[in-house]
Amino acid sequence: MSKTMKVAVTGAAGQIGYSLLPRLASGEVFGPDTKISLQLLEITPALKALEGVVMELDDCAFPLLENIIVTDKAETAFDGVNWALLVGSKPRGPGMERGDLIRENGPIFVGQGKALATCAADNVRVLVVGNPANTNCLICMKNAGDIPKERFSAMTRLDQNRAKAQLANKAGVSISDVSRVTIWGNHSATQYPDSENARIKGKPVTDFIGHVEWLRGEFIETVQKRGAAIIAARGLSSAASAANAALDHVKSYINKTPTGDWFSAAVPSDGSYGIDEDLLFSFPVTSDGRSNYEIVRNLDWSDFAKEKIAKTHEELRAEKAVVQEML
Ligand code: NAD
Ligand code: LMR
Question: Which strands sit side by side in the sheet containing 3-10, from one edge to the other?
Fold first, then answer.
């Protein structure tokens, strides 16, 4: 056993952090031959709570967990990291949209982008989870100096997982029968979960779900508004499923995508599908197994899809305009 993966997690004392850290330390993501060094960033008032989390990690006696750094300094947290999971930021409350957090959370990603540029390992990959995730990631990427922009992504994997579960449930099939689920656009209520390009047992979804009105109505709305439904029910935003999605995201980057499938991630647009360059837009992507992705090209969009995708594109343009001074 020779490798050590240095992973930074911000907001490590928060709800998502609590679900994320033990699973990262267990080796489930990077495998049994890779030791893990956790580099945990919190704001100063939360360091005491984070000490408690660290005690619990110690008490798990994870054989692969080599080292834990706890800090309120981004430069220390990001020193030499191979992956940076940027979770730390305020969650929304009932009645808010994720975009309402932009002025409060956006500035966090200016400083963290700069710190990553000076301190992270040459091969760093950055996943932004904190909301509004796409635009926070844009801010981070634009402040991160020479780090290639392809290293940045924002999380829409939770939306993909939600869409997959809805389709499997409606069709009465297992989750593993559902493939090619794309979330297009923003991690927000305008996102477009695409059932037209998805497959069930390798066939069009409509072979299994004949109720097209459901696919174009309730299915889309359920996925778009699932985060708000969880907040309404729990009084807190999703945490276990969000942590799970972050781990799924990393696993999908570091493992080769199975032939014929893809996963969804918000990555900087290269102009594919007419999306403005650099906007962090959720696309279908595949990985070569070494954390390099490619956007899946040439998927068909129906007129229905085009209208939905134009709306989420517009929303991301508007968010970018709001944070222009941070870019
Ligand atoms: P939480 O309030 O439980 O935890 C957030 C933590 O971040 C807190 O401990 C806080 O002290 C810390 N923090 C705040 N500012 C920080 C900074 N500048 N540096 C480091 N840490 C900082 O919230 P949570 O439930 O863990 O959610 C975290 C974020 O993730 C929220 O913005 C939430 O909306 C978002 N989220 C995104 C998705 C997604 O699918 N993209 C899913 C769920 C939640
Ligand atoms: C989610 O989708 O569950 C998160 O983005 C939290 C939220 O605010 O909805």
Answer: 65-71, 34-41, 3-10, 83-86, 125-128, 152-154, 263-268, 280-287, 293-295
pLDDT tens, the chain, 327 aa long: 569 999 999 999 999 999 999 999 999 999 999 999 999 999 999 999 999 999 999 999 999 999 999 999 999 999 999 999 999 999 998 889 898 999 999 999 999 999 999 999 999 999 999 999 999 999 999 999 999 999 999 999 999 999 999 999 999 999 999 999 999 999 999 999 999 999 999 999 999 999 999 999 999 999 999 999 999 999 999 999 999 999 999 999 999 999 999 999 999 999 999 999 999 999 999 999 999 999 999 999 999 999 999 999 999 999 999 999 999
β-strands 199-200, 203-204 pairing: antiparallel
Q: Would you name the residues annotated as active-site residues? A: 187
Q: What is the dihedral of CA 325, 284, 221, 152, to 10 degrees?
A: -30
| Pocket of ligand 2, beta carbon within 6 A | 91-92, 98, 131, 158, 227-228, 230, 237-238, 242
Tokens standing for 239?
């945490």
pTM for this one? 0.98
In angstroms, what is the span from residue 88 Cα to ligand 1's centroid? 4
- The pairing of strands 263-268 and 280-287 is antiparallel
To the nearest 10 degrees (0 to 180), the angle between helices 157-171 and 240-254 is: 100
Q: Residue 221 is which amino acid?
A: E
Which atom of ligand 2 is least distant from the CA of 92?
A: 8
Please spell the DSSP secondary structure of 129-166, one letter per residue: -SSSHHHHHHHHHHTSTTS-GGGEEE--HHHHHHHHHH
Q: Whose CA is nearest to atom 2 of ligand 2?
A: 227
For ligand 2, atom 4, which residue shows the shortest CA distance?
227
Question: Tokens for 29?
Answer: 């993501």
